[in-house]
Amino acid sequence: MPGPLHGVRVLDLSRVLAGPWCVQNLGDLGADVIKVERPGAGDDSRQWGPPFLKDAQGRDTSESAYYLSANRNKRSVAIDVSTPDGQALIRRLAEHSDIFIENYKVGGMAKFGLDAGPIRLHNPRIIYCSITGFGQDGPFAERPGYDYLFQGLGGLMSVTGERDDRPGGGPQRVGVPIVDLFTGMYATIAILAALHHRDLTGDGQTIDVSLFDAVMALSSGQLSHYWCGLTPKRTGNASYAIAPYGVYPCADGQMIVASANQSQFVALCKVIGKPEWSSDPRFVNNAARMSNYDALYESLSSVFRSKTRVEWEAILFKAGVPAGPINDYAQAVAHPQAAHRGTRVELEHTLGVRAPGVASPMRFSTTPVEYRRAPPVCGQHTREVLSELLAMPDAEIARLEADKVIAT
After folding, report:
1. Into which CATH architecture does domain 245-327 fall?
2. What is the 3-state secondary structure (H, E, C) of 1-33?
3. 34 near 57, Cβ under 8 Å?
4. What confidence score (pLDDT) does residue 241 get?
5. What is the rounded average pLDDT for all residues in the chain?
6. In degrees rounded to 5, what are phi and psi of residue 62?
7. What 3-state DSSP class applies to 207?
8. What is the pTM for the complete model shown?
């Protein structure tokens, strides 16, 4: 069976991560994605390396690992949207598309006559999604921004990292570009909702998604605490609300113990040979454990140091207490569950090698995710798309290429 979005076409003028991540989701779900890139340069993230994809001789190619991570299931066309001919091509392609997505700065598309107004005038069914740093309005709307900036601006770094009074204390960014990824996911959700609305009414609409709004939504739990009178702070690997819920030393390293409810704590105390701790006034419930956090941590650590991580993981698993190691990525992808779930996927690349990627976490019983195309090289499908969708003759394609409007 084809994917659930089979028959839907996306015209993608986004680059870097938030937009491409959204569009890769749509492509994985079966949509036909046309990725518009600058002739010669392409998506900014193509140059964000090392590492780069290796060719058959082990040499670096033009395709960065960063770019590969968010651009499968797309066809690349290289069009210079700063030229009148290029703008005309985009408008014509939009007439054959269901979704238009861009992540230029506010007003950037209007300079080219490619903002929502003129695009939707010619195709009122199209869903026009704009991803920006701060949204389409407000005092900061025209400012640019990247994930790192919003992790700081939105408060995320104020709760990430070790406590100030501990070695290495201070704010830290999350180790993955989480704001970009969440923004892309919110854009995906919004587009799917707009598609459903169009199915009901026949009308498209515009969508305004921003990194600023996404990082605020991502912190909904922390903001709820703040609005209820408690300003969240950094707690390192410890939870600010649950105990024991953190990292503990074992004989050969560290492991995570995540005992999130009372029954798990009672089981934990029993299996480590300290059943009396579950009725100790200092640890009798979660509030008491949080009030006596340091005493609980030292008590548990003294026990956990007696065995290895593997030994404790097996013991705690049998007791129904969640626990596990802190893996690096080599260990994570070597995990038997990763092998069973098919976490690594490979697609045949036009450069003659297989490009690796991470499998989509969306699993369907009837319309499975499709891995059809490796991330394309810049302009790989220009001629194909213009011929197929616009019935453009070879002579016209040659003229546009000679005028540097397109690259093939």
Report:
1. 2-Layer Sandwich (3.30)
2. CCCCCCCCEEEEECCCCHHHHHHHHHHHCCCEE
3. no
4. 86
5. 96
6. -80, -5
7. strand
8. 0.92
- CA–CA gap between residue 178 and residue 147 (Å, rounded): 7
List, as one string, the DSSP characters of 103-171.
-PPTTTTGGGT-SHHHHHHH-TT-EEEEEESS-SSSTTTT----HHHHHHHTSGGGGSSB-TTSTTBS-
Q: Which phi and psi angles does 9 have, rounded to 5°?
A: -115, 135
Q: Which residue among 32, 115, 180, 208 is the active-site one?
A: 180
> Quick one: tokens of 306?
């007696």
Is the C-alpha dihedral spanning 236, 242, 245, 249 positive or negative? positive
Coil/strand/helix, residue 391: coil
Pairing of strands 9-13, 32-37: parallel
Tell me: pLDDT of 240 over 90.
Answer: no
Cα 28 versus chain centre, distance: 14
Indicate the class that CATH gives domain 9-218+339-407: alpha beta
Instruction: Give the tens place of pLDDT for each residue, 63-76.
Output: 999 999 999 999 99
pLDDT digits (tens, 9 = 90+) for 156-209: 999 999 988 888 899 999 999 999 999 999 999 999 999 999 999 999 999 999
Start-end ranges of CATH 3.40.50.10540 in the chain? Answer: 9-218+339-407
C-beta of residue 287 within 8 angstroms of C-beta of residue 355: no
Rounded CA separation 240/238 (Å)? 6
Instruction: Name, in order, each residue with C-beta under 8 angstroms of 123's C-beta and a sequence gap of 6 or more.
Output: 94, 95, 97, 204
> How far apart are alpha carbons 320 and 187 in whole angstroms?
37
Residue where the block lists tokens 């990194």:
211
Please name which of 151, 10, 95 lies closest in space to residue 390, comparing C-alpha atoms.
95
Task: Return the structure tokens found at 326.
Answer: 């802190």
Contact (CB, 8 A) for 380 and 354: no
Q: Where in the chain is the domain with CATH 3.30.1540.10?
A: 245-327
pLDDT tens digits for range 94-122: 999 999 999 999 999 999 999 999 999 99
Query: 233 with 159: CB under 8 angstroms?
Result: yes
Q: Give the separation between CA 154 and CA 217, rounded to whole angstroms.
A: 10
Quick one: average pLDDT of 307-326? 94
| In the block, residue with structure tokens 């003229």 | 399
Cα atoms found within 13 Å of the Cα of residue 45, Cβ hemisphere only: 18
Tell how far CA 147 is from the center of its chain. 11
Q: Classify residue 95 by its DSSP letter.
A: T
User: Cα(43)–Cα(113) distance, rounded to whole angstroms?
Assistant: 21
Catalytic residue status for 12: no
